[in-house]
Amino acid sequence: MKKIIQWINPAIRSMQAYHVPPVDDMIKLDAMENPYTWPEALKQAWHEKLDAVALNRYPDPAALPLKDRLRELMAIPDDTAIMLGNGSDELIQILAVALAQSGRHYLAPEPGFVMYRRLTETLNVDYCGVPLRQTDFSLDEAAMLAAIARYQPALIFIAWPNNPTGNLFDTGALLEVIRQAPGLVIIDEAYHAFSGQTFMPHLGEFENLLVMRTFSKSGLAGIRLGYLLGHPSILEELEKIRLPYNINALTQATAGFILEHVHVIEEQCSRIRAGREFLLAGLSRMQGIKVWPSAANFILFRTLNKTAAEIFAGLGQRGILIKNLHGSHPLLENCLRVTVGTETENQYFLEAMQQL
Ligand SMILES: *Cc1c(COP(=O)(O)O)cnc(C)c1O
User: Fold this and answer.
1) With CB atoms counted within 10 Å of each terminal CB, which end of the chain scores lower, N or C?
2) Which atom of ligand 1 is nearest to 159's Cα?
3) With a 6 A CB cut-off, is 220 part of the ligand 1 pocket?
């Protein structure tokens, strides 16, 4: 076995597997999922739509009807191209592969979304993390611009709002990053449904800007669908390495269906935004906790008198799963991230926190 395993790329062998904890029947507040399900009548209508899907056929490789509907609904300008991915994770991977060349650099503020670094690890590229400011996790514009000047990065990833810190970076600072970047800048708007902010209007202004979104956080993590917006001539190149049938027929049908009933998702997201304010207020009142503001569907907080591990374990004993970020980055000492749940789950979480 040892001999055979040697054939696996050493860069892969030295990686740690991406660990997703088992959930059983815990209250799951760890992965930024929408906690709500659909009304029964909507489910019935969806089942009928699925019934018409030809599972024996390959899916539509271009998914044009879905893209058209997206364009209409999200007011995507005609001169902007759309590329679909099996989750935005796949789009990040496509970008990372497409721009990879020995000696090149990719850059992102850190702590940030872990997949940017992870999906670059096996490529022959240097990944450069630029630390956020310590007190409020704001973007260190001077440090970013210095890193851009020094490394001339082919690719810059920016999650906006940022995961796991939940904040929106200053728009002016980001515009300056886009202006000075020699390569592509990806503004990852995975939490757009909760921030209400977008860089989409700037797409026409900058050829090197791409905006990325996903269906995952607003309610459909299970169907795996993300989309990338940008200049047609750039997306045309990226399309060459997209697997032709990456968006399966059930995903296309389901996404098309929900885009006809988008008010359901919008209403759920507005409940989640209200839940976020409820959790923020509750956590802010607690002693021994430092909490940061959030424009996303999760909240970052630090425990001051106990370790994050103790709080994580105590919540676990009460059947609640959140994310312990301690150890993932020096700026996240004793930090934890909780995803906004249903009204009942949020209440239960705050009670458990109070006990702990
Ligand atoms: C969750 C998340 C993603 C991944 O979304 P998928 O579409 O589910 O792959 C991308 N970017 C950020 C910042 C995220 O938090």
Assistant:
1) N
2) 13
3) no
- Nearest Cα residue to 203 out of 178, 182, 225, 180: 178
189-215 residue pLDDT tens: 999 999 999 999 999 999 999 999 999
Rounded to whole angstroms, what are the CA distances from 18 to 114, 169, 268?
10, 27, 29
First CA to last CA across the chain, in angstroms? Answer: 47
DSSP code for 123: S
**Among 94, 162, 186, 188, residue to substitute to test ligand 1 (most atoms within 8 Å of Cβ):** 188
For tokens 């956590």, name the residue: 283
> The whole model's pTM is what?
0.96
Q: Which helix (H) or strand (E) holds 51?
A: helix 40-51
User: Which tens digit of pLDDT belongs to each residue from 282-325?
Assistant: 999 999 999 999 999 999 999 999 999 999 999 999 999 999 99
Cβ–ligand 1 contact at 190 (below 6 Å): yes
Task: Compute the distance from residue 16 Cα to the ligand 1 centre, in Å.
Answer: 19
Q: Are 99 and 155 in contact (CB under 8 A)?
A: yes
pLDDT value at residue 23: 75
Q: Find out whether the beta carbon of 88 lies less than 6 Å from any atom of ligand 1.
A: yes
Say if residue 240 is exposed, middle or buried (CB neighbours under 10 Å; 0-12, 13-18, 19+). exposed
Nearest protein Cα to ligand 1, atom 15:
163
Instruction: Give the distance from CA 132 to its chain's centroid.
Output: 18
Closest CA to 94 of 243, 288, 213: 243
What whole-number distance in Å separates Cα of residue 215 and Cα of residue 114? 19
- Residue with the smallest CA separation from ligand 1 atom 11 is 190
